Amino acid sequence: MSLATGIAIYLTLWWTALFAILPLGNKTYAESGIEVKDGGDPGAPVNPNLKSKFITTTWVSALFWGALWLVLKFGLVKLPPFPQG
């Protein structure tokens, strides 16, 4: 796996993990009993904790990327060669 391919795979894993982690642990305005004003959405999170979710996304993605790298490094799954152009 080349450096560019590894970075592209990591970024794809990172965004996929982010969308899976974002809804975890959120309380909405409706669940908290807070009145929404000025056209806000009652389903929006009160405190989304984005910093901790970005950190969690980073290490989860690193674990998945590392597992994928090990699988490819030790040849547990053979990939066909990419065409050279």
Write the layout of secondary structure elements.
Elements: H1 3-21, H2 29-32, H3 50-73
Fold and architecture overview:
- The chain has 85 residues and is mainly α.
- It has one domain.
- The chain is 55% helix and 0% strand.
- It is built from 3 helices and no strands.
- The chain has helices at residues 3-21, 29-32, 50-73.
- The protein is elongated.
- The mean pLDDT is 92.
Order of helices and strands: HHH
Low-confidence regions:
none
Q: What integer value in Å does the Rg equal?
A: 19 Å
The figure for the number of domains is 1
Distance between the termini: 17 Å
Reported for the largest beta sheet, the result is: none
Mean pLDDT: 92
Shape: elongated
| Strands, count | 0
Give a short overview:
The chain is mostly helical and about 80 residues long. Helix content is about 55%, strand content about 0%.
Keywords:
85 residues
